[in-house]
Specification:
about 210 residues, alpha/beta, Rossmann fold, five-stranded parallel β-sheet
Length: about 210
């Protein structure tokens, strides 16, 4: 079974460490790839630059995207993701410290799935990451790739609930109590399917 992968696009080392810790303790991703600017993120997704030998038929299940990035900003990264047939339905959640309404509006206009403001409170921040990963990695369902040919449109802003039974792992994770403080730090809850643990591989930061 293919490992579930999250692509983290984050240039702040402190926020990166918090994201990695939250994902590891929640046991929600099989693999986490970290890129530290927008250009590197695009290289990873489309197999260019230092990632020219990457198999672009295999995409991450979720992108956690900062907006304020060096080289290529987060909005341009999102624009490029949505304009390419290979990534146009790829779930993208913005994690940002920006309080600008224009950033939120433009993000959703470009086809963003979830917009989450980074909390200065550690517990809130960790809970935000746990919930977004839970939804997009284990509960949300995407259409089969073979049915998503060029020119076919999807309702990118809407979330599709999974059908059928929730896995024991999802039940166990969802059972954790969400604090009122954590709820306050989340603009929109996202999510996810199945597979544990973060494995360290070349090019993957833990």
């Amino acid at each position: 079974m293919q490992k579930k992968t999250i692509l983290v696009v984050e240039d702040n080392p402190d926020d990166e460490a918090l994201i990695m810790r939250a994902l590891k303790t929640s046991n929600l991703a099989g693999e986490v790839v970290v890129t530290r600017d927008g250009a590197e993120a695009l290289d990873y997704l489309f197999g260019t630059g230092e990632y020219d030998d990457r198999d672009t038929d295999v995409m991450p299940q979720l992108v956690l995207l900062d907006l304020k990035l060096p080289k290529v900003d987060g909005l341009e990264v999102l624009r490029r993701i949505r304009s390419d047939d290979r990534t146009k339905v790829l779930p993208v959640a913005v994690l940002t410290s920006s309080t600008e309404q224009e950033d939120m509006i433009e993000s959703y206009r470009l086809g963003l799935n979830s917009y989450i403001r980074k909390s200065v409170n550690f517990d809130q921040f960790t809970e935000s990451i746990r919930l977004v990963a839970l939804y997009w990695m284990y509960l949300n369902q995407l259409p089969p790739e073979e049915q998503m040919g060029p020119g076919q449109e999807t309702d990118l802003g809407k979330e599709t609930s999974s059908q059928g039974q929730t896995t024991p792992q999802v039940k166990a994770v969802a059972k954790q109590q969400t604090t009122p403080e954590a709820k306050a730090g989340i603009e929109e809850e996202p999510g996810v399917e199945e597979e544990p643990g973060i494995e360290q591989e070349p090019g993957i930061v833990e």
